[in-house]
Design a protein that fits this description.
mainly alpha, Arc Repressor Mutant, subunit A
């Protein structure tokens, strides 16, 4: 690899598609070999290659001002190595999450329902059960989840005024049921 790659990167920074194609033609075989030495999964290598060249296209201007002794292929390898590390981190995170996930049967009641049934007085639980689902959803979002009117509106996909009306209606019905 020579200084020609640095000139290509500078042209890519100006949006030159032909220079990008030439840079890819010259560097992709070398980059693929280096990535395969660190990862045997061809799908991951292909994904990292794609993300690397996308980053090169977007960030070539960042290299254009680099020092004369800065190598374009070194810059390219740094991008690829960071992308590969990101993939490894993501896989590790997913593996940890898979280990942490509890075995909950799909028909198990929601945690909020269990809490309401077990800790709230019988009368309140019965009153909540009598509420229409849309009223109960608003109360759950605002009271149990602690969401604002706006957040509840976004969550439920209804206007903020509707959230306020449903919350007021639910409180009124609960008061009536508990008095």
């Amino acid at each position: 690899m020579t200084d020609d790659e640095a000139a290509l990167v500078r042209k890519v920074a100006k949006g030159d598609r032909a220079a990008f194609a030439e840079l890819y033609r010259r560097t992709s075989p070398w980059l693929a070999v280096r990535l395969r030495r660190r990862c045997s999964d061809d799908q991951i290598v292909a994904e990292v290659m794609q993300e690397t060249y996308l980053a090169v296209w977007r960030a070539a201007g960042g290299f254009a001002g680099a020092s004369v002794d800065g190598s374009a292929v070194g810059w390219l390898w740094t991008i690829a190595a960071h992308r590969l590390v990101d993939v490894f981190r993501q896989q590790a995170r997913q593996a940890r999450q898979a280990e942490i996930k509890p075995d909950v049967p799909p028909d198990a009641p929601a945690a909020e329902e269990v809490v309401l049934a077990g800790t709230v007085g019988h009368e309140l639980g019965a009153a909540l059960d009598q509420l229409a689902p849309e009223l109960r959803d608003v109360l759950q979002a605002m009271v149990l989840d602690g969401l604002t009117v706006r957040e509840t509106s976004v969550l439920l996909g209804v206007p903020e005024g509707t959230v306020k009306t449903r919350a007021r209606r639910a409180r009124t019905l609960l008061r009536e049921a508990l008095s």
